[in-house]
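thread: overnight batch results

M.L. [08:02]
morning all. the overnight job finished for the chain we discussed friday. pasting input first so we're all looking at the same thing
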Amino acid sequence: MKINKDKFEKIIGTPLPKMFGLELFIAQRLGFIRKNGNIYELTDKAAYLYHYIEQVYTTAYIDKMWNISRKQAFPDQIILY
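M.L. [08:03]
and the structure it wrote out:
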């Protein structure tokens, strides 16, 4: 739920604000992230939204997996769209 901008640049090779400057600006203005020194962190509002979307996706994924697996025990592939 946190990104250290210095570690990001060290690992990725590009500064976080250069790569995602517009997105960071918009997220801050909407109250989804806050900057605390070199750390960008999700607000409670963003964490709630993130977990809600994750739950919806996971439920849909698991439902699809179970439905396909009921018909064929070990399918060669499952397309998730």
